[in-house]
């Protein structure tokens, strides 16, 4: 705990058996109280590795429901366990758990209610091996979003995030997509509710075991990002209302 705030790390997992132990071993258990792993019907040994590591809270989807659906299960379980701060961390070791201290202290001390680990601040993404086309797409989409949403984030696409329970309880997450666009919808919901978001520089590690989506799905994701940003713009201007902004 920090300032009597219960901290829970959630791991949305899919075929993460090769990297789960390395990720888990770097979680700072001097402040982290619980770990929740949700397995989205992996075809590898993710569940077995999680059990060997002693993770108490393991949920398994009976079918592959998608990245967004995985996160929904993660947050519901963490809040049910009484979390005050929830850290969403990919178990593929693309992001280092060593930043959990910094992210949680900002929330526990009421500096910011949401903290993102940004790969784009500094040179972490390219040094860590992010493919150039993904880096360029990230920069373009982020510029487009900042203009429409009226913010100044360095990126909207990181998979390393920390939230206060007040933020999570205020969002209509069940109205969001079950796919990858969930992340972007969630950030737009947070801004719509008037919460501020902090970013800290996050080194990145891309390897053959890191989770990634192929080019076609990347294009679909990019289009979804643009649509979500336009929906937010229309909503804030009072042109049209969308269910995710309840």
UniProtKB/TrEMBL annotation:
Pfam family membership, one: Glycos_transf_2
SUPFAM superfamilies: Nucleotide-diphospho-sugar transferases
Species the sequence originates in: Aquimarina litoralis
Coiled coil: none
InterPro entries from the UniProt entry: Glyco_trans_2-like, Glycosyltransferase_2, Nucleotide-diphossugar_trans
Protein name: Glycosyltransferase family 2 protein
Domain Glycosyltransferase 2-like: 9-169
